[in-house]
Amino acid sequence: MLSLVEENYLKAIYHLSEGGKEQVSTNAIADVIRTKPASVSDMIQRLDRKGVINYTKYQGVKVTNEGKEAALSVIRKHRLWEVFLVEHLNFSWDEVHEVAEQLEHIKSPLLIERLDKFLGQPKVDPHGDPIPDAKGIFRAKPQQPLQHLSEGSLAVIRAVKDTSSAFLQHLDKLGAHLGTQVKILEKVEFDNSMQIQLDQSPPVFISNQVAENLLVQEK
Amino acid sequence: MLSLVEENYLKAIYHLSEGGKEQVSTNAIADVIRTKPASVSDMIQRLDRKGVINYTKYQGVKVTNEGKEAALSVIRKHRLWEVFLVEHLNFSWDEVHEVAEQLEHIKSPLLIERLDKFLGQPKVDPHGDPIPDAKGIFRAKPQQPLQHLSEGSLAVIRAVKDTSSAFLQHLDKLGAHLGTQVKILEKVEFDNSMQIQLDQSPPVFISNQVAENLLVQEK
DNA sequence: ATAAAAATTTAGGTCAATCTAAAAATAATT
DNA sequence: AATTATTTTTAGATTGACCTAAATTTTTAT
Q1: First and final C-alpha spacing in chain B
Q2: pLDDT, block means (10 residues), chain B with 219 residues
């Protein structure tokens, strides 16, 4: 049984290792958890003892199968609650994160099973991230940062990488939502910004940062 | 800002003082919280420093106005979540307590405001307990233990005092729910049990304990 | 290949929340 | 009223989750 804090560490480690990297470093963890490397050092030794990660001194950590299962269970809960907040309590996609961070730690298998059913077993959360099923299985849709596409490409927004309020509110202003169609009209070499068209709206410029954080599926 | 544990102590103290008693004793708190009196002694000194209770050594504690507000906010959340679980996630009234004990500590005024609206601003929870509004105001319906009524009385079940699964499941078997009409057919002096009729069902005997925990409104 | 820089770990400390054992205060009983 | 019993508090320890400062290891750069 993991404590709330341990769950947060494990989730962070899992997310850091999602990017393909096998070994996750102490500093990287300290960064996401917003804590000191010394504290992380402490904690990863505890998580190692609990069997959810493998830790070798100075070499970073790797999530075990047991750890992956636990991490996915927390992620599943987080994303299901986000769906609930947006679809039933009228939250906007930039308001859900902090609350879901709390709700994800509620321990009740029955609750999650029932919530899942109530929501109609959704497959993605309001940011387009896939929701693992009860067994931790999920299918990641083929998607890439808008930045990677070339001039003239046509794509559909499927997810966002950054889920900060600032970014999401900016997208709202632009009219960029999940399912919105994007056409790349022009790529500016100078600063990697680009001019795009969202659905039938007039063309707009977006910065490199925005394009990096918009995950799209090419048509 | 109170910690989860502090909230639980405060809630317990508030509930203990609801029964009219001004001063709540260390042992009584230890009993409900299932902790040792020494730990309670520690904690009530902390809660006193935080201003939510007034503590005088060896004399017990009393909830302050500020404390009452905080306690009612937790109770409001607990009861709103119970309504949600029963009305939308198909929980039965004997399954909600433990989950609501966790959900009541989620901190998000927006969440509670929206949940309240979603649920249609309910006035009572699945056990008949009144739900305080955002300002902590609630109206307790006039009700008394069934045990207090005399032979021949007619009443309606409005709430339950005990909310343990064991008790609630027993009530389910008897067919006793909120809103069920009760007629007292006979009171047995020997053991304080009684024979009652629930709605149009055949008469049944109930023990003194059951009658003490059924809160009714006389007709 | 060595020195400097960066990352990581250890040592030692703090705070919240608990505990046990012992001391002190209050209440009950003869 | 004095003694006994009960309740409450204090003292001292423990565990989880953090911190700072110092030591160690690894990496990078000269």
Answers
A1: 44
A2: 97 92 93 98 97 97 97 98 98 97 98 98 97 95 94 97 95 96 96 96 96 95
Contact: A90, B114; criterion CB under 8 Å: yes
Nucleotides in chain C with any atom closer than 7 Å to protein CB = 7-12, 16-22, 25-26
Interface test with A, best of B89, B104, B117, B119 (most A CBs within 10 A): B89
Domains of chain A from N-terminus onward:
4-63 (1.10.10.10), 144-218 (2.30.30.90)
Residue (of B214, B216, B177) closest to B193 by Cα position? B214
Residue A182, Cβ density class (10 Å: 0-12 exposed, 13-18 middle, ≥19 buried): buried
pLDDT per position as a tens digit, A83-142: 999 999 999 999 999 999 999 999 999 999 999 999 999 999 999 999 999 999 999 888
Residue B37 contacts strand D, CB under 7 A: yes
Q: Which residues of B touch A85 (CB under 8 A)?
A: 111
Residue A124: strand, helix, or coil: strand
B210: CB partners within 8 A, 6+ apart: B146, B167, B170, B171
Whose CA is closest to B153, among B181, B176, B184? B184
HEC profile for B50-119? CCCEEECCCCCEEECHHHHHHHHHHHHHHHHHHHHHHHHCCCCCCCHHHHHHHHCCCCCHHHHHHHHHHC
Nearest to B106 among A88, A103, A107 (CB): A103
Inter-helix orientation angle A4-18/A26-33, to 10°: 120
> Would you call B102 and A107 a contact, using CB atoms and an 8 Å cutoff?
yes
Distance D8 C1' – B40 CA (angstroms): 10
What is the value of pTM for the model shown? 0.93
Length of chain A measured in residues: 219
